[in-house]
Amino acid sequence: MASVQEGTQVALGNIHVPSECKRIGEVLQRIGDKWTILIVVQLAGGALRFSELRRRIGSISQRMLTLTLRGLERDGIVERTVFPSIPPRVDYELTELGRDLLRAVGPLGDWARRHMKKIEKARQAFDARDT
With the CA atoms of 70, 93, 103 and 27 taken in that order, what torsion angle do they form, in degrees rounded to the nearest 10? Predict the structure, then answer.
C-alpha cells in the first residue's frame, strides 16, 4: 500500500498517474494494433523467417509486416537475427519481454476463440436490426 494522502491508503496498481498515461497509451497502442498479437502468437513456437511468418498470417502485406516487426524490435519484443548467407537469411523470435507479453495476451486470445461464434451471432443480429 502507498500513502497518497495522510490517512488515505491506495493499492499501488490503482493509482492514476497522469504523467504516465501517454507512455502507457503508447505501449497499449503497440500491443493493441491489428497485427502485433497475431505476430507474437506465431512466434510463440520459436524463430521464423519473414516469409514463413507472412505465410502463416496470410492477410498481412509485406509492408505492414515489415513495419510491425520493426516496431516490435524497437520495443524489445522481437529480436531480428541476420545470417550471412546468400541470399541473407533473417529470423525473428520473441525476446523475454515478448514471451512475457505472450503470457499476458494468451488468455485474451483464448477468450476470443471461445466466444467467437457468440460475437458473430450478436453482430449478425445487430446488423439485421439496423437494416
Answer: -10
Percent of the chain scored above 90 by pLDDT? 60
DSSP structure class, residue 16: -
- What string of DSSP letters covers 31-94? HTSTTHHHHHHHGGGS-EEHHHHHHHH-S--HHHHHHHHHHHHHTTSEEEEEE-SSSPEEEEEE
Angle value at C-alpha 127, between 122 and 130, nearest 5 degrees: 130
- Which pTM was predicted? 0.74
Helix 62-74 and helix 50-57, axial crossing angle in degrees, nearest 10: 110
Q: Write down the residue that cell numbers 520473441 correspond to.
A: 94
Residue 61, φ and ψ in degrees, nearest 5 = -80, 160
Task: Give every CB contact of residue 61 below 8 A, 6+ residues apart in sequence.
Answer: none
Yes or no: domain 14-130 corresponds to CATH 1.10.10.60: no
Domain ranges of the chain: 14-130
Q: Which pLDDT band holds residue 127 (cuts at 50, 70, 90)? A: very high
